[in-house]
Structure formats: structure tokens, C-alpha cells
Amino acid sequence: MTDQSTSYNTALMPPKIIYGLYAVGYFIGITSLAGIIYAYLSRGNNSVADTHLTFQIRTFWISLAIALAGFITAIIGVGFIIFIFLLVWGLARIISGFLLAIEEKPIQGTRFLGVVAY
């Protein structure tokens, strides 16, 4: 193993941890809050990691907006459909981003209306 790959492994550790915190956030919501704080604190150390951190920060804020819309519309029954969409959308982003972090690749954009990172 070269020094360069070792530096990428340690540089991409914060995004990997944050993906894990977001995944656990589906069961224990406070871990998502810890993930967003960690994402903001970890930015600026590595350009590849920064693409993941920006993606994770956007995922958090967009998820929060979708969840708010789900809560507001739950009264008329539409909110439950929104929450199902949020579940699928969030998990797809977490899984696709984590797979790219494992491969040590940056996030270059998203496909399928922002669902899957590539």
C-alpha cells in the first residue's frame, strides 16, 4: 500500500462515518444531527472528501425540508407518501455515496432527480 492510498483512506474516513451516522439516523434521529455537525467540521482537508461532505450536507438539509413537508401534509394523508419517498431517496443517497467513498472516488453529480450519486 502506498502513502497516497493511505492518506485517502484517512481523508475519506469522516465521510464514511457520516454515512453511517445518517444510516443509523433512521432508527435514532439524533445521529443525523451529529453527522451534519461532523460534516461541517471536517470540510477543507481533502478535495475528494469535500465532494462527499458537500453531498452529505445537502442530503441532510433536503431531507429536513422533505420531512417538514411530510409532517405538514400528514394531516391530509399525503405525508405518509412523502415519508416513504424520503426513506427511499435518503437510503439511495447514503448507499450510493458510501459505495463511492469505499472506492475512494469523488462525487461528481447525481442521477435520477438527485437520488443516486455518481
Would you kindly provide a written description of the structure presented here, covering whatever features stand out?
The chain is built from 5 helices and 2 strands; from the N terminus they run αααααββ. The protein has 118 residues and is mainly alpha-helical. It has one domain (3-117). The chain has a two-stranded antiparallel sheet with strand order 1-2. A hairpin with a 4-residue loop joins β1 (110-111) and β2. The two termini are 26 Å apart. The model has no long low-confidence stretch (mean pLDDT 92).
Describe this protein with a few key phrases.
118 residues, mainly alpha, 5 helices
The average pLDDT is 92
Shape: globular
| Main sheet strand line-up | 1-2
Proportion of helical residues: over 70%
**Biggest sheet details:** 2 strands, antiparallel
Tally of distinct domains: 1
Low-confidence stretches: none
Cα-atom radius of gyration: 15 Å
Give the CA-CA distance, first to last residue: 26 Å
Could you say which structural class the secondary elements and strand pairing correspond to? mainly alpha
Tally of contiguous helical segments: 5
Order of helices and strands: HHHHHEE
Q: How many strand elements?
A: 2
